[in-house]
């Protein structure tokens, strides 16, 4: 029996389905090993010009991807650790690869997509959600003294708009399926049993100029008035993570996507391993033990 966390099946309609199923875990957690497996799978697909699209799904009931391995960040000696840069760069490389595939992609989310899990979905061209009661989408990193590290500060505002994106990032609050549809974070909600079929049908019926044009638009800066900038004095009174995520959004969305993500990476490195972040992560683990 294979211990691979990534399985690829090609449907009769030539849509590939990439299913995540991490062995020995109730959730799919973004470890370096999983990123490497995902990268290998995407490399194997990028020359498949016969494919009509790619659906990314999870075999875990009620969970799409739970996010990064917090134990890794809890044990850091301090900020600006080179191992953190390597880990972040690995995930970014995989997501840029996902965004460059020669066919459209859709995340089929039937459960929790949190932190890095939502960032994977944001790198897809489209997102559908199922009807599982545990459907939940969010970027809760600020509650752990961190910010999203795999492009979330840049892809989210470009998708749902600056106001909604910034609010979601600065508070770290998740949204349910109906709210996600309302904010255009996902395209629509589909019965769980029909989710993969609906995603495949969506991809097969897209004209190339639709999904390719949408990708190109995401790479470009957002055109915004200067009034969207937060005053410097108000930034100084914010908790470190909220301050960093605010600056990342304000400054980064005015740049090309890759340039904005560079700002995000440097901000993430300043926060990961900080005393504040490690204390909040420790409190998170302590609270989880009590439940």
What does the secondary structure layout of this molecule look like, with pairings?
Layout: E1 6-10, E2 15-20, E3 29-30, H1 32-45, E4 53-58, E5 62-65, E6 67-68, H2 70-74, H3 82-99, E7 105-109, E8 111-114, H4 116-122, E9 126-129, E10 136-138, H5 152-160, H6 162-171, H7 177-182, E11 188-189, H8 195-204, H9 208-219, H10 232-236, H11 240-252, H12 257-271, H13 275-290
Parallel strand pairs: 2-4, 3-6, 4-7, 5-8, 7-9, 8-10, 9-11
Antiparallel strand pairs: 1-2
GO molecular function: enoyl-CoA hydratase activity; long-chain (3S)-3-hydroxyacyl-CoA dehydrogenase (NAD+) activity
Protein name: Enoyl-CoA hydratase
Pfam family, one: ECH_1
How would you characterize the overall build of this protein?
The protein is of the alpha/beta class and 291 residues long. It has one domain: 2-enoyl-CoA Hydratase, Chain A, domain 1 (Alpha-Beta Complex). It is 48% helix and 15% strand. The protein is built from 13 helices and eleven strands. The chain has helices at residues 32-45, 70-74, 82-99, 116-122, 152-160, 162-171, 177-182, 195-204, 208-219, 232-236, 240-252, 257-271, 275-290; strands at 6-10, 15-20, 29-30, 53-58, 62-65, 67-68, 105-109, 111-114, 126-129, 136-138, 188-189. The strands form three sheets. Strands 1-2-4-7-9-11 form a six-stranded mixed β-sheet, sandwiched between helices. α1 runs parallel beside α3, α5 crosses α6 (162-171) and α6 packs antiparallel against α11. It is globular and about 55 Å long. The two termini are 34 Å apart.
């Amino acid at each position: 029996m294979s211990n691979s966390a990534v399985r690829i099946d090609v449907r009769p309609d030539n849509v590939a389905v990439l299913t995540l199923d991490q062995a020995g875990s109730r959730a799919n957690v973004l470890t370096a090993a999983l990123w490497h497996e995902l990268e290998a799978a995407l490399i194997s697909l990028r020359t498949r010009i016969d494919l009509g699209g790619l659906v990314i799904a999870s075999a875990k009931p009620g969970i799409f991807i739970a996010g990064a391995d917090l134990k890794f960040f809890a044990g850091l000696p301090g900020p600006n650790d080179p191992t953190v840069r390597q880990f972040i760069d690995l995930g970014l490389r995989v997501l840029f690869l996902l965004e460059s595939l020669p066919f459209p992609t859709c995340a089929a989310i039937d459960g929790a997509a949190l932190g890095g899990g939502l960032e994977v979905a944001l790198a897809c061209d489209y997102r559908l959600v199922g009807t599982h009661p545990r459907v939940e989408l969010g970027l809760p990193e600020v509650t752990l003294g961190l910010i999203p590290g795999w492009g979330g500060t840049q892809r989210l505002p470009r998708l749902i708009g600056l106001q909604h994106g910034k609010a979601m990032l600065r508070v770290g609050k998740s949204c349910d399926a109906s709210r996600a549809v309302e904010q255009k974070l996902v395209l629509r909600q589909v019965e769980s049993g029909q989710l993969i079929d609906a995603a495949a049908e969506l991809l097969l019926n897209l004209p190339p100029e639709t999904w390719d044009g949408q990708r190109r638009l995401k790479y470009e800066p957002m055109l915004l008035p200067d009034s969207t900038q937060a005053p410097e004095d108000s930034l100084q009174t914010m908790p470190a993570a909220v301050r960093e995520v605010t600056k990342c959004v304000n400054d980064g969305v005015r740049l090309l996507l890759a340039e904005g993500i560079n700002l995000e990476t440097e901000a993430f490195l300043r926060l990961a391993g900080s005393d504040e972040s490690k204390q909040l992560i420790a409190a998170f683990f302590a609270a989880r033990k009590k439940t």
